[in-house]
Amino acid sequence: MSDVVGYELEGRVAVLTIDNPPVNALGIAVREGLVTQIDRAGADNSADAIVILGAGRTFPAGADIREFDQPTREPHLIAVVDHLDTVKKPVVAAIHGTALGGGLELTLGCHFRVAAPGARMGTPEVNLGIFPGAAGTQRLPRVAGLDHALELIVLGKPIGAAIAKDYGIVDAIIEGDLRAGAVAFAEKIVADGAPRAISSEPRNGVGSPEDHAETIAKYRDLANRRMRGQDSPHQAIDSVIDGLTMPYPDAVAADRKRFETCKNSGQSQALRYAFFAEREVSKIPDIGKDVVPREIASTGVIGAGTMGRGIVISLADSGFPVTVVETSQEAVDNGMVEIAKTYDGMIKRGRIDEAEKDKRLVRITGAVGFAALGAADLVIEAAFEDLDVKKQIFGELDAIAKPGAILATNTSYMDIDAIAAATSRPEDVIGLHYFVPANAMRLLEVVRPEKSAPDAIATGMTLAKKTSKIGVLARVCHGFIANRSRLPLVREATFLVEEGASPAQVDAVLTGLGMPMGPLAVSDLSGLDVSWRMRQSLADEHDPEERYMHLADRMCERGRFGIKAGKGWYSYEDGGSRPMPDPETEAIAMEVAREHGTVRREISDEEIRERCLYAAINEGAKILDEGIAARASDIDVMWLYGFGYPRWRGGIMFTADEIGLDRIYGRVKEFHAEHGKLWAPSPLLARLAEEGSRFTR
Ligand code: CAA
Fold this sequence. Notes:
Elements: E1 5-10, E2 13-18, H1 28-43, E3 49-54, H2 77-85, E4 91-95, E5 98-100, H3 102-109, E6 112-115, E7 120-122, H4 136-144, H5 146-155, E8 159-160, H6 161-166, E9 172-173, H7 178-192, H8 213-226, H9 232-245, H10 248-263, H11 266-280, E10 299-302, H12 306-317, E11 322-326, H13 329-348, H14 354-362, E12 364-368, E13 378-381, H15 387-400, E14 406-409, H16 416-420, E15 429-434, E16 443-448, H17 454-466, E17 470-475, H18 482-499, H19 503-512, H20 519-526, H21 528-537, H22 550-557, H23 583-596, H24 605-625, H25 632-642, H26 652-659, H27 661-675, H28 683-691
Helix pairs in contact: 1-2, 2-3, 3-4, 4-5, 5-8, 5-9, 9-10, 11-25, 12-13, 18-24, 19-24, 22-23, 24-27, 27-28
The protein binds acetoacetyl-coenzyme A (CAA).
């Protein structure tokens, strides 16, 4: 009858099992199967009630997202959900794993819901640029009340079974065997003659939009703050409001139109792309599932500075014992004090309690000297960015680390092949490039040196997962993927200031694209001296034909290191971090422009957008072409998680595709003619533009 929806009788209860691995997505075959088997159960004289559950790891985790790019096929999920209203026998949803999106909506069509204690449920559709399109915006408020429904629908965060029971979404939590418990629940419903709870029935006393004005305003505000620039949370709220003013069928019809508009929007396409891009990153073409990552039972970190401490906390938070080494007892003690302070901050924000802090601190040991790292399975070096220092550290590590230990460097741009060559075991050396603050930032750039062993790389990628990070693989080059592709954006931002734009104008254009902060405000936050030192260390390699960041150097020469100095691109009052325009920056820009013959002029927002974005895209194309990134989407995932690029724009490479590579190539050629060598077009960009092709699929 159906390959993907099984039918069995258990006593007088028909059990319908959805079996569509890996997550029982509600594709066309499942939807057809459900209708067939629901009708069969309805007509089966041996069945008094129906239980619907998922095989394997989960209840359906939603609609099949891959189908969104294809023509829709009937029955739509909404028809399946509405069909359940007509079934005269009680239908019970038995939830385990993650009942998400359409999965939860399917349960809302059922008359009762029971769940395993570990089950999670929610409506994460806003993360895909849509909203619950199978009547979730109508049924969930009726079942859970408007506030709880808006919480789930607008914020898109799943909740656990216990909270779902509090919210009235789940009728009972079943300890032990879910299937047996659900069947027993259904039998009791039949025995009690309990009426079927139909969640599309008219709402009594639920109130009007005016009654709920405060709640609605609260979620509008949350949507604006947490999902800035994104449409679908507001569309979802509009749908819920429709449900307060229209009969169910009319509200559902209005939903349908709104849903289609959202689904076909650029935002939704970008968000769906990001969903799959994020899942692609862990697939490394030449490292298959047969490569077994090495066992990591204990870890070590070299350096208790800002970065080292963040890495220590990230490891300890994920349950790893960590030994952090420094060159003096004083530095160790300072590091431990700062780590404890970070945990105190987490307690203050209600993220952990004292007991949890103690548990995590017990995992951390401070020590002086490398000898303490002899037993570690993984050592991460987070010392000063100086190649000679790093080579020396790795030479010393080589002498004491146990055989097979992974030796990782946290360098953000250096030649890891050269660092690996300082050891007798380059196969064990990898890059683990964390982002500040390392305990909070989700991105981990795993860098693959020439001689690294496949299982060393697999271990780095697994470590990312085990520490709740997104690991993205890069080959070795200056700055790897993340910093190399971002540098041109920052470079253009500073050139634009030299040419006449104000820092505030440049930053406003980029925040206008949806980035959380502009590049110059970010430089002030992280310190202008960091890249100044890097430029100084690379002075010998500078190509005189390439335009140089004289203005950024001059800012540092004048002590304008950013927030920590009270002045950078902006000025800051009384130790605060609120950027204020500073006429001195303009004066310095005019001075540098004069010295280097730069003509100052009025600069349009359009030019700022194009120069900053296209410079990064052109570099991204070079990174892809050189095989530093395995795919364009890996570059995008870096931008989403490393630099706060708006997810609803997909990433810089996806944005490029949406703008059109021919347009970008055309502008890059013009900028090349105008501004010189740094704008040399990527051959890949040129080729794809000429073919009318894309970076991403
Ligand atoms: N459609 C299609 N494929 C899906 C999918 C979906 N809804 N959910 C997951 N998958 C695929 C993933 O792409 C992945 O495929 P590969 O192995 O080929 O990479 C595989 O299933 C396993 O997924 P994860 O790697 O993410 O597994 P996980 O265990 O880490 O997480 C999960 C499982 C929590 C269910 C997670 O996959 C997830 O959040 N999925 C999306 C849930 C969602 O957004 N549901 C709403 C869909 S839209 C909707 O339902 C609209 C509507 O109103 C009708």
